[in-house]
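User: quick one, fold this
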Amino acid sequence: MIKRLMNGLALIVLTLFIASCSKTAPKLLHIQGQTMGTYYQISYVLDARSQSDTRLTVQALQQEIDKRLELVNDQMSTYRPESELSRFNKAEKSQQVSDATRYVVQAALDLFKQSDGAFDVTVGPLVNLWGFGPDKRPDKVPSQALINEKMQMVGSQYLSVQGNMLTKSMPEVYVDLSSIAKGYGVDFIADYLQQLGISNYLVDIGGELRVKGVKPANQKWTLAIERPVAGQNVQRLIHIGDNAIATSGDYRNYFESDGIRYSHTIDPKTGKPIEHKLVSVTVIDKNCMLADGYATAITVLGPQAGLAFAEKRHLAVFLLVKEGDDFNEYYTSEFEPYFIKEEQ
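Assistant:
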């Protein structure tokens, strides 16, 4: 009796072992490439059923993603002379554009109003003048007269959207969507992954990210807020759940002249690079495009006005401010739940 029971138990254990081995474990795959003048990286998880789908192999999926990112560049890049946006910038008044370009420009106009002009996609002539745009120039400080001249061309109040028609009331108005288009690209690719049935992923374009689900073994996607000093130093570790995150900062893109450091972020109201001590803004939102735009707007506003702007709108925002020799943290209550708590 005992012998028969033991044999039966061994058979059950063996059967369970074979069954467990026959199940394919979830697989974490990675894609990387170049777009929008920067890198992109995508990590995604395939379950056993999805691993047999030929559309979801790294090679097949990257081809489709590259096509979609090329489309975004053809629509919104100022570095491509024949993009929709470049053709609008060269037009005297109006240009018909795609639904995507209309959507992003309308979002930019909404942010312009919300931020009282701090976020302004028509600031391109000033960005170019200071050497941070496609019309790169020597690293030198432009004259006040030249700044004043370019400022006459700046102002999103001169830009309007009617259906899919972009219109400007001055021919000189020049639109640059670089402060919001990367975030749109992240959303565009994340939405495509979801259409394919991929529900666990991380999409990263130049440091703007959107995350959904988990990694294999139910591990959360862990992200880091960088400390803006030499080397890859981590200021904070965070879990953002099913959200997007964008960071704006002046600690990488700048030039120096006569010992003065000039940020790539231009204040539309002065026509000059920002001068305050806010070095990094991180925003968490469901929508990466909005997180991208909000991060830029708050960077222009500065630490006090930027934090007040975020608190008024209940945004999840984290600021790093250079005060003396230290980097001090300021953040809204909406951001606090995303911190990874240190074990005591």
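User: anything notable?
Assistant: Residues 1-22 have pLDDT under 50 and may be disordered.
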